[in-house]
Amino acid sequence: MGARGESGDRSRRRGQGELEGQVLAVLGTAGKPVSAGWVQERLGGDLAYTTVLTILARLMAKDAVTRERDGRSFVWTSAADEAGLAALRMRKVLDGENDREAVLASFVTALPPGDERLLRELLGQAEADEEPDLGEGLDPEADADAHDEPGGDGPGREAGG
After folding, report:
1. Rounded distance, CA 147 to CA 143, Å?
2. 22: helix, coil or strand?
3. How many CB atoms are located within 10 Å of the residue 130 CB?
4. Is 7 helix (H, G, I), strand (E, B) or coil?
5. Whole-angstrom distance, CA of residue 30 vs CA of residue 67
6. 43 Cβ partners below 8 Å, 6+ apart?
7. What ranges make up the beta strands (E) of the chain?
8. CA geometry: angle 86, 97, 92, nearest 5 deg
9. b/e for 76-110, b at 16 or more Cβ within 10 A?
10. Which of 59, 64, 77, 129 has its CA 20 to 30 A from that of 149?
11. CA atoms within 13 A on the CB side of 32
């Protein structure tokens, strides 16, 4: 029928964030810092070089990529994978809301049971990973003393104590 349906995927409009995800995926395969031209080649010839630079700049603003000078241009490295980029977007949305607690509560209550269970597991793991070595209210120097060898004058010990 129309040219629109016959043109296939190359001319279709990409969804918001889709191109960012593709750029991150390409950077993830590089294994080393690469140029914007390298990224453009791997994405296919239908993207303008300036479009690739724009996407890389947006990703850098989101802390999803880093860049370093290489001669007169830059080379780019992925700092986040596609899941990391999605998490950055979610955090940005959350940060833009006035009532953070209400947004989080609404999000959690709308999760399907499997996702809610997974979220609980992940939160439990994160909590276990963040278990502080210090008890609440303890003095860091006192904790350092507890790790010194008995009878030694290690850091934080006063002589003659």
Report:
1. 7
2. helix
3. 7
4. coil
5. 14
6. 22, 23, 26, 52
7. 65-70, 73-78
8. 25
9. bebbbebeebeebeeeeeeeeeeeeeeeeeeeeee
10. 129
11. 2
Per-residue pLDDT of the chain (161 residues; tens, 9 = 90+): 444 444 444 556 666 578 888 898 899 889 899 999 999 999 986 889 999 999 999 999 988 899 999 999 999 999 877 787 778 778 888 888 899 899 989 988 899 989 989 998 998 998 888 876 555 555 545 444 444 444 444 444 444 44
Phi, then psi, of 108 in degrees rounded to 5: -65, -40
Instruction: For residue 24, give every residue at least 6 positions away whose Cβ sits within 8 Å of its Cβ, in sequence order, or none.
Output: 59, 64, 65, 78, 80, 81, 82, 85
Q: Between the CA of residue 152 and those of 128, 149, 155, 160, what are the distances in Å? A: 32, 6, 9, 11
Longest dimension (CA), the chain: 93
CB 62 within 8 A of CB 54: no
